[in-house]
Specification:
alpha/beta, Aconitase, domain 3, 7-stranded mixed beta sheet, 25 strands, 3 domains
Length: about 600
């Protein structure tokens, strides 16, 4: 078996599992964040459910660690009260990013299973554990039952050969992988990443790579733990881990070999993490700001890489540099090592630990027209503000901050590029209501055809609205950040059906991106494929999703009426009578659909 198959088998009482098997998987660590935690509590209370094992259950407040938003403050306080009443562990706004705490506080170890309302819970792949981001229903079920249903994914193996070139950092490695595989060619797969250079990697580098599995559409990037990683986990958990490794005869759907020697310092273009180019292609582009942090690059090693550059340089005039460590422990290490003094003397702003701009709850957001180099894992339009966000390594970001334009650590400007007095930039390159309770198995509705792949959750339901917990208020924001469809909520009618392309729902674990369609009374979504977390969220909310290979034979146009048979998978265009076959509901999906909610099973 592969790594993920072994972990899932061990946690479901099976000797052997196969891709496609649906299991009841025991969850070792169950986390909920500040924006999702309130909904988890509401789901539990509404269904009269109790926490199965408080010792394995935790809140982590990392989205809005400053408590700067009234809705977040209210949600956080609700969670605090629930934690007190139920003896649940709580890592409050002064502690940092929950997935990092799961590793550093010894909550999780190699071979464990972890779920969180954080879509980047697959960071746990850095220690050879299975982490999965899930929506609030899933997490509520995990808290109440200690287990969740899960479909065993297919596995892919990627072997990196050769030697890592000078100036190529872990972030560059994962960006090069994104450039090759894009946002959906590994959709739904569990990836095992191996190679001599991978084996040498420290925990920080492993976290950087594993954290961007979500942006590749993968379930996880699992890295076999080295002796150093196993020792680290043992020291922090106080128990001897049982690491899991793939069998020599494990069966992979596909295997790839890539030469590290060919990897280049790289950067993601604004709007799409997978739109990766060599830095040389955009070198010289004048910037306004730099963000250092996020769950991808907020470790002490990242901070040291930035400090090494800022020791001899100051942030370029007019450039704003924001630094946010991933955890309070990292923040304190920065303090004791003198890094914060280096940051401040160079002209950077340092904030308390947390997710920062990625969650719109802290420093890191940018304004219209602002050009930012960020070490985050996402640069979806509107995700980190209204401006343009480029994704790069901490070294590249720091070098760009002191140069005033995009560049690498080996090519820092002798004299920073400054803004002209009229405010123009030099060397600027042009860069481009709940569905009714009845649950029919045949649905009839009019279609909206959105011919676009990789529609992410920020396009569907922007993160500035995440504090909304009332489903009746969600519909008005549907597709509010999707160009060409921002008026969808006004023109959509109850009973409508959305048809779209590949990887619909990529990105965050936010349940609102599903519930907004329910709020509008939409009946279903058909897509070539869905983001893994999004698919689970919809199924667990009883909202119909179906995948198709081709709908060309239907000759559909916008506002055609179609009939969908959920049991047989037949879809018919009622205008011309043409019919095609799509993937019908599988048993657990139909069961939850009929009950209306995972928590009513």
């Amino acid at each position: 078996m592969t790594i993920i198959e072994k972990i899932l088998a061990a946690h479901s009482g099976k000797e052997k599992v196969f891709p496609g098997d649906i299991l009841d998987v025991k969850i070792d660590v169950r986390l909920a964040r500040d924006f999702g935690g309130a909904n988890v509590v509401k789901n539990l209370n509404a269904n009269g459910l109790k926490v199965e094992d408080a010792s394995k259950t935790f809140f982590t407040f990392d989205c809005n660690p400053t408590g700067s938003d009234q809705n977040y403050a209210a949600n956080q306080h609700l969670c605090r009260q629930y934690a007190r009443d139920n003896q649940i562990g709580l890592y409050d706004i002064n502690t940092g990013i929950g997935t990092h705490l799961a590793i550093d506080m010894g909550l999780a170890a190699p071979g464990d299973t972890v779920v969180s309302t954080d879509s980047h819970a697959n960071i746990l792949g850095a220690i050879g554990a299975f982490g999965q981001g899930m929506g609030d229903r899933d997490i509520a079920a995990a808290w109440a039952r200690g287990a969740v249903w899960y479909k065993v994914p297919e596995s892919v193996k990627i072997t990196l050969t050769g030697k890592r070139p000078e100036g190529v950092y872990a972030k560059d490695i994962v960006l090069n992988l994104l450039r090759k595989f894009g946002a959906n060619s590994l959709l739904g797969f569990s990836v095992e990443l191996v190679g001599v250079e991978i084996e040498k990697m420290n925990l920080s580098d492993r976290i950087t790579i594993s954290s961007m599995a979500t942006e590749m559409g993968a379930i996880a990037i699992l890295i076999p733990p080295s002796e150093d990683i196993i020792h680290y986990c043992e020291m922090h958990s106080g128990k001897k881990p049982t690491p899991v490794f793939a069998d020599a005869d494990a069966n992979y759907t596909n295997a790839f070999e890539m030469k590290l020697d060919d990897f280049l310092p790289s950067i993601s273009m604004p709007g799409k993490p997978h739109d990766v180019v060599p830095i040389e292609q955009v070198k010289g582009l004048k910037i306004d700001s730099v963000f250092i942090g996020s769950c991808t690059n907020g470790r002490i090693e990242d901070m040291r890489a930035v400090a090494n550059i800022l020791r001899k340089h100051k942030v370029a005039p007019g450039v704003v540099m924001k630094i946010v460590p991933s955890t309070d422990e990292v923040w304190n290490e920065c303090l004791s090592e003198g890094l914060i003094d280096i940051f401040k003397r160079a002209g950077a702003m340092v904030s308390n630990a947390g997710c920062a701009g990625c969650a719109a709850g802290q420093v890191g957001q940018n304004g219209p027209g602002e050009v930012t180099v960020s070490t985050g894992n996402r640069n979806f339009a509107g995700k980190q503000g209204k401006g343009e966000v480029y994704l790069a390594s901490p070294a590249t970001a720091a070098a760009s901050a002191v140069s005033g334009y995009i560049t690498t650590a080996s090519q820092i400007a002798e004299k920073p590029l400054e803004f002209t007095s009229n405010g123009k930039k030099e060397a600027q390159k042009q860069v481009v209501s709940e569905i009714e309770n009845q649950k029919p198995t045949v649905l009839v509705g009019k279609v909206w055809i959105i011919e676009q792949d990789d529609i992410d959750t920020d396009m569907i339901f922007h993160n500035q609205h995440l504090a909304i917990t009332n489903i009746d208020e969600m519909g008005q924001h549907t597709f509010g950040n999707l160009n060409g469809w921002k008026d969808y909520a006004k023109k959509s009618e109850p009973g409508d059906i959305v048809i779209t392309g590949k990887n619909f729902g990529a990105g965050s674990s936010r349940q609102q991106a599903v519930d907004c369609f329910k709020s509008l009374g939409n009946l279903a979504i058909l897509a070539e494929s869905f983001g893994a977390i999004y698919e689970r969220n919809a199924i667990n909310a009883g909202f119909p999703l179906l995948t198709y290979k081709s709908l060309h034979e239907l000759e559909l146009i916008n506002r055609d009426a179609i009939r969908i048979d959920l049991e047989s998978g037949q879809v018919t265009n009622l205008r011309n009578g043409k019919t095609v076959q799509v993937n019908q509901f599988y048993d657990i999906q139909m069961l939850i659909y009929q009950k209306g909610d995972l928590l009513k099973l």
